[in-house]
Automatic annotation (TrEMBL):
Domain Helicase ATP-binding residue range list: 35-206
Residue ranges occupied by any DEAD-box RNA helicase Q domain in the UniProt entry: 4-32
The name this protein goes by in its record: RNA helicase
Range covered out of full length: 1 to 212 of 461
Chain location of the short sequence motif Q motif per the record: 4-32
Domain of life per record: Bacteria
Family listed: Belongs to the DEAD box helicase family.
């Protein structure tokens, strides 16, 4: 049986002690399937049902690559809705609370633009946002993704269903080709295959099938 303890992964000690204190004693199946590959730097397409711990999977992946002393946007997580972006940002902040001063900023539509400009001016390590608003900030020059290390497409199937394909492509065009791209989804819709082919570099696909 594969080792499902977080301690089997090359994670910083601060992250491991925090996971213990959060009550995350063992990896969920999708975490165990995806994290070793993610931490090795590969692009990953991960598919597992809702509630299976996908946020911590990509969260630990992106936090591991973060250089906290460098204050620029290193990771971007795109989510289909403001509510989901808020939940993801909350989980990332919980996971990062033992790392010194990791700044996670949300950029979502439906929220006023002005305060987001102010927050961006102060800088952030991680942005969590919805595609439309992130694209708007890129167009206006208030956000730069020139030094991005990790791009996460969370609930990619829903983002495609909601018509975010063009915004996703415009955003990806503004990121370095050397980035790591992580795609998370509850289903493997046709559009996902297309996005993967166009936006990912030799992705490794992992899937945790539903057990009945
Ligand atoms: P998904 O994105 O797959 O729908 P979430 O990332 O929202 O799932 O996680 C569902 C719940 O599981 C959250 O409340 C999260 O805190 C919890 N969780 C995630 N990983 C673990 C773990 N390894 N051990 C215990 N709880 C976990
Ligand atoms: Mg999720």
């Amino acid at each position: 049986m594969p080792d499902s303890t977080f301690a089997s992964l090359p994670l910083a000690p601060e992250l491991l002690t925090n996971l213990e204190s959060l009550g995350y004693h063992a990896m969920t199946p999708i975490q165990a399937e995806s994290l070793p590959t993610m931490l090795a730097g590969r692009d990953v397409i991960a598919q597992a049902k809702t509630g299976s711990g996908k946020t911590a999977a990509f969260g630990l992946g992106l936090l591991s690559r973060l250089e906290v002393t460098r204050f620029h946007v290193q990771a971007l997580v795109l989510c289909p809705t403001r509510e989901l972006a808020g939940q993801v940002a909350g989980e990332l902040r919980r996971l990062a609370r033992t790392l010194a001063n990791v700044k996670v900023l949300t950029l979502c539509g439906g929220a006023p633009f002005g305060p987001q400009l102010g927050s961006l001016a102060h800088g952030a390590h991680v942005i969590v946002g919805t595609p439309g608003r992130v694209e708007e900030h890129l167009r206006k020059g208030s956000l730069s993704l020139a030094k991005l290390n990790t791009l996460v497409l969370d609930e990619a199937d829903r983002m495609l269903d909601m018509g975010f394909q063009t915004a996703l492509e415009a955003i990806i065009d503004e990121t370095p080709s050397t980035r790591q791209t992580l795609l998370f989804s509850a289903t493997y819709a046709d559009g996902i295959r297309l996005i993967a082919e166009r936006m990912m570099h030799e992705p490794v696909a992992v899937e945790v099938a539903e057990t009945h």
